[in-house]
Amino acid sequence: MMTILLLTHSYPDRENSWRGSFIKDQAEALSINNTVIVVYFKIDYEHFAPFSKYEFLKTKAGNLTEYTVTIRRSFPVINQINYLLKTFKFIENEIVQKNKPDLIHSHLSYPAGFLGTIVQKRIKIPNLITEHSRITNYFRSLIHKQCVVYALKNATSVIAVSNSLKGEISSLCTRPVNVIHNIVDTDKFKLKKQKPGQILNIGFLGGLGNNNKGLDLLLKSASVLESKNFVLHIGGKGILLNSYVKMAKESGLEAKCKFYGEIPRDKITDFYSGLDLFVLPSRYETFGIVLIEAMACGIPVIATRCGGPEEIVIPATGMLIEKENTEALASAIKSMSKNLGSYDKEAIRNWVIENFGKNVFIERQSNLYQEILTNITNE
By CB neighbour count within 10 A (0-12 exposed, 13-18 middle, 19+ buried), where does 121 fall? Predict the structure, then answer.
């Protein structure tokens, strides 16, 4: 059993049960055989207190200890520096010195990966970075880009959640990049038993803060379907939600769409259980966690070739189409609806268990940990 310090700025809390839920799933899985300490840090933008110390809450369940560290908003320009410095002090003073972790596992290159790499340099603890996001998303300024590149070049090890993301990272720094896919806890998802009825239930789930998930494409495709015997079940919230509701109405789909808003994580299985097929027509994905969640329920999926889905969807589990192609999406929905009986629900679920299940993830991640610690011992 080793002690793992997991750093992240994205993690579920009372305000948002979805944010970083895939990171929490990894932390819980790793805590089965290890002591895992999560430091989740964030800025409180509502309260201006530049000279206040960090605040933190601690919870513990079994081998998993979670710290939520809050930094109050500071002056413009120096706010990020204040955030990084105070978070670093917490990590060093409250965690590293008291718990002596064997290694650091940082999720997302900035700020966690950058901070983890600084700790690695100062205290000689190996730092691994798992990247989940498009690298260019971090490049808000030249300084941010330099911090990200520094972390990726100097961390002990870098992990990408898909081969497409590995390619992006490799274009920035010439070093080995491991691929360890995201995890789905299949115990939380149940196999859908009901057979399709006369009404086709089509599901979509994703953030609606921008148009990346392609809900606009799904609505356009649904509006030209010959058969109108369907219902679109749409989960997710964001600033574009009202515009999508308006789009559905203007497309004549108002009676065919059910907008659920944000679905709590503990209700997500209920959402999937009512579907016959699931659609994610994204413009870009590093992975596509909702695809393997739907498939863990035995539901066939339709996704676009936009990065991560190519490693998730095979002919036995669903269909891949070109992105930004509403005609291809409408055709795929029509084809799948006519052939739902040809998909083996148990086979779909087993594909997920064998490739993205908890045990597979634990084995892959633990082997990398051991390899790193062995190499350090032999140096």
Answer: exposed
| 263: DSSP letter | P
For residue 147, give Cα distances in angstroms to 98, 103, 104: 27, 21, 18
With 0-12 CB in 10 A as exposed, 13-18 as middle and 19+ as buried, what is 254? exposed
Backbone φ and ψ for 349, nearest 5 degrees, come out as -65, -40
* Gyration radius (Cα) of the chain, Å: 22
Residues 47 and 158 in one domain: yes
Q: The domain that contains 40 carries what CATH number? A: 3.40.50.2000
CA distance linking residue 229 with residue 363, whole number of Å: 45
Question: What is the amino acid identity at position 369?
Answer: Y
- The whole-angstrom separation of Cα 5 and Cα 104 is 5
Residues 73 and 175 in one domain: yes
Name the strand (E) or helix (H) holding 26: helix 21-30
Q: Let me know: does 67 contact 9? Beta carbons within 8 Å.
A: no
Alpha-carbon torsion (158, 159, 162, 163), positive or negative: positive
Helix (H) or strand (E) holding 302: strand 301-304
Q: What is the pLDDT of residues 257-310, one digit of tens each?
A: 999 999 988 899 999 999 999 999 999 999 999 999 999 999 999 999 999 999
Q: Which residues pair with 43 in a beta bridge?
A: 71
- How far, in Å, CA of 126 to CA of 120, rounded? 6
Same domain, 151 and 279: no
CA 57, distance to chain mean position in Å, is 24
Structure tokens at 223: 């509006």
Identify whether the C-beta of residue 114 lies closer than 8 Å to the C-beta of residue 155: no
Q: Where are the extended beta strands (E) located within 11-82?
A: 35-48, 55-61, 64-73
pTM over 0.85: yes
Range of the domain at 62: 3-183+357-378
Contact 61, 32 (CB under 8 A): no
173-213 confidence digits (pLDDT tens): 889 999 999 999 999 898 877 777 789 999 999 999 999 99
CB 99 within 8 A of CB 91: no
